[in-house]
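Researcher: Let's try something more involved. This one mixes different molecule types, so please make sure each is placed in the same coordinate frame as the others.
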Amino acid sequence: MVSVKARAEPARVIVDELQVAAARGGDRAAFGKLFEQFAPMVHGILLARVAPADADDLLQEVFLTALEKIAALRDAGAVGAWLAMIARNLATDGQRARRPTAPLPRDLATYDAPKSEAAEVLAIIRTLPEAYREPLVLRLVEGMSGPEIAERVGLTPESVRVNLHRGMQQLRARLGLETDHE
Amino acid sequence: MSDDYLWDGSGEPDPAVRKLEELLGEARYRPPKTPRSVEPNAPNEPGKSNEPNAPRRRVTKRRATQLIVSAAFAIAIATCALWMLRPRGPSLVVKRVSGTARVAARPIGDSSRFYPGSWLETDGDSGAEIALAGLGSVDVGPRSRVRLRATGPSEQRLELERGSIHARVTAPPRLFVVDTPAAAAVDLGCEYTLAVDDQKVSHLEVTRGEVELAGAGRVSRVPAGCRCDTHPNAAPGIPYASDAPEPLKRALGAWESGGGRPALDDALAHSRRADAPTLWNLLERTDGADQKVVADRLGALVPPPADRDREAWWGRVTGD
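Model: All components are placed in one shared frame. Result:
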């Protein structure tokens, strides 16, 4: 039976714990290392909820909040899940303070700038069920593998795999892409 | 095909996943190009130890640790603050016109920077002016919220979430775009007022030149002297002359709400020469027998060119 908790790379988790311990002690270099390691994951979690420009601003807020509160982090091995929770909360707060995301045009060709096309697809991803958004963005945007997502975010590989699969199915349908699976 | 590629990148690449990876890769996190925070064990003054925790003369080890921890936090916070205030590439200049307008929650003066991603907000008593880098200017009215989405040689793009703007643009066509919750207003060389009300309905009035409204896979062309109202989750409205008769406006509303041929006939019956832009836009939204009656009425008001070229007809309709 496979272990339920994602601990595929225990050495990395130990490194995280050491860095968290050092960061809790005020070691700014250790905190910088944590930032470097987890910024892509936090960025992906934010992109799953807010527009790209807002994600950049919120990324800074997430780590400023983490810097303030890291002394209260009990389980150093769960720093990824802890940062993910801060990111989700700040994104939710940000959305409450702002308007809901504007609905998408059905014909993306009217927004013909190449960078806008990516933004439109991201906006479509943000309309998918919440459980599917994060793994899809972390996989397709941030380039993380499924096992890496599970380990970083603190979820089981099984649930990440299922959510990736179902999320991709729904995204294919929304984008009108050919379905090769099943 | 299994989903191994989606899962961990192994196996036969899934073309759809590959395509999305390539497209969305541009949104990937990019580390800031700012200097790293001060490294540990940086060389100290000559004669002093490089070890941050090394005891110093007359200073207890515990006190030294406290000082180092405090300094480290101060440096980390300062580094974060500098990072937040880092130069962020191209920006526009915005100035206060009245009251207390804010950019990124900070009050603005006579020459404040407006960076992509930032929000400009005015309250009930304030107004601001955005300079479009030599391409015109945008007055921001009271109770407005505007975001700069992009600024560069190929695109100047704002988002109007609520409130109103008045734009005077001398940029080449399609360079200046304003997104609203209902549609994107694409400047074709003009002056116009655009407002978004509490129901997220956008209201456009063009006073010079022409604006193209795009959204939901449809486009409306709004020339000078016309207005256009667009609801969220719907195609851009059918433009109408600023002095259009009320029965015509009611009939257009009924047609846009699914009133069908009776509403269309009603609109055509109340149309005048000044309403030709309305009929031209209706031509684009109709087909078959409906399109024929619209074309007949438009042709009666503004004879089409011999080759019935639509662009040439549009030129006649708008008096170009």
